[in-house]
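Researcher: For the record, we're logging two predictions in this thread. I'll number them. Prediction 1 follows.
Model: Prediction 1, sequence and structure:
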Amino acid sequence: MENKQALLQPYSKNGLELKNRIVMAPMTRSRADNPEFKPTEDLQAAYYEQRASAGLIITEGAQVSEMAVGYVNTPGIFTKAQADGWKKVTERVHAKGGKIFIQLWHVGRVSHPDFHHGELPLAPSAINPNSKSFTPQGFKDTVTPKAMTIEDIKTTINDFRQAAKNAAEAGFDGVEIHSSNGYLFHQFFNKCSNQRTDNYGGSIENRTRFFFEVLDAVKNEIPEQKIGVRFNPSMHNLHGMTVDEETIPTFEYLLKKLNNYQLAYVHLSEPFTDVSKIPFAVTEIAKHFRPLYHGTLMINGGFTQETGNAVIERGEADLVAFGKPFISNPDLVERFENNLALTEWNQNTFYTPGKKGYLDYEPVKL
């Protein structure tokens, strides 16, 4: 009997062909516990292969350079060894009929000198996010970063371009530019973290310039239809981000301008925290931004099978990304198909080395 759930319907637009509308969200898992920070066949390749029934997998963030690193044991996509490791991942996922994008990542000021041989992390302006950085020696306070020079900006643009090229050579179906969650691009977007007075600061157009320059560089390496982007418009009080009177207009500007591109999708997050009493914040992200963007819209943030089906049925999103449920339910799609209970996740093993809490969640016996 055909399953009528909206989440389980195939999706096709602008070259993006998915067997269902359930997306595995990008999630840091800190399993690249090796000197080269590369994915391995016995860990990452097996992990993503287990979840290949998703319409689309988006990997954990992969750093585009050494300066982009900000968390312990996270994989990169800037060396040959890393790209070769990812190739094992894509081969295993494709063999199972899955599709997989890699998330390209630069954390900016959320990093720590411990990751950069004592050098300061890079950011649009020298403003400390007053957050915590998860270093090899444990959590440490963030520091005041180095304001990026024009040369730093040009280098970083090229890092993203090269990472996209590496990703294509590793066999990925596409890339997602991580422009969200208080990391480098988000730092440029927001007035609280960007106080530049050059062409990359001040007006909304200037604060989004770096993002579009990176996007244009990436699309010189891979087709626009294989590029997704991710935003978190109402993120507040995390990694030093705040919502002000220009925050939502900045993201409205971004989405409207992205209509000029033929992207795979725009990936939006509902607020991570309660922002109902925060001035200028938007509480229903999908509903607010859907009328502004004419391409494929993906939404994430605490969705269940029921609410995921509903947001698609209302026309507010085309795809729904699930995070933590995919950690403990590698067969999440099959569980939704059969309306089965989900296995609870163990948060204590989200970022620990090895297979425990990573590969040992059992699929349901049908």
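Researcher: Logged. Prediction 2.
Model: Prediction 2, sequence and structure:
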Amino acid sequence: MRIPQARLDQVFDRFREVEARMGVAADGGEIVRLGKEYAELKPVAQFAERLAKARVEREELEVMLTGGDADMAALAQEELAELDARLPDIERELALLLAPRDADENASAILEVRAGTGGDEAALFAGDLFRMYQRYAATRGWRVEVDSVSEGDAGGYKEIIASIGGDGVFGRLKFESGVHRVQRVPDTETQGRIHTSAATVAVLPEVEDVDIEIKDGDLRIDTYRASGSGGQHVNKTDSAVRITHLPSGIVVTSSEKSQHQNRARAMKVLKARLYDQKREALDLERSQARKSQVGSGDRSERIRTYNFPQGRVTDHRINLTLYNLAKVVEGEALDDVINPLIAEDQAARLASLEEG
């Protein structure tokens, strides 16, 4: 695709305007906002400059082709062929930067994994999924902190909520939201029959205080004694926290040892869920104009199947099938699934830019 020169000029003008305003801004909030926009615009401006220079170079080479000097023309022809081979990649990279993108792409994330249909086996599978993301996070240098956990009777988790901190976490994990299905022979199965179970994954962008406002009067905060399997890990005091957001009916809990930490963690998850509601409403509006091939992000949508007898992983949104299930579940090869999803989303964004 060819990006019009007028679009490049818009990028340069806005980048120079933001740069100039940063030099005179005195308000703290404005400085933060301008700094964020500057960081987002800088790579776009750099690619736009590369493209502008390449176009000027191409015009100069075309002049050399018709200049009458045979040796210079031959050299220009060779350089022009090399430049024409590079130009489409520069155009595509810049187009991706200019295409509509998720404002929360670089945010940290709240990861929620819940057991679905399948009883104890579903809870065990939820545990496998959480460990997969935990190990994947470790390979990328992200921080994982458990906010709330409800263990399954036979192991695994009925529900586990964790914060994953790092650059670009939400952008890489957001397509994991949905229903994950597993087909395997459970350890408790005596006749070797394959069972099908499911777990639901939700990935929410972790939001800053400026992103969403919650009124104290809209909250009901209860403390209670967390239940447990016994021993030293059972709370002796009412330190667990349950927060109910009355207007939306959203309920969040945190049941670690410190009541102060539990309240802070529960509020963080509540903000993420309320912000996610706003995102879903906006996505619904956008989907009326363009339906992404990657999927709607609806958490009731079955997105992936893990078939252990065949060692197969299938992502149903892009018809991707891999036969390295063990490495995917270990988190080692999860990028083999995530990268094609991101590529599909980029293609959809480019298509929307061309349509626009």
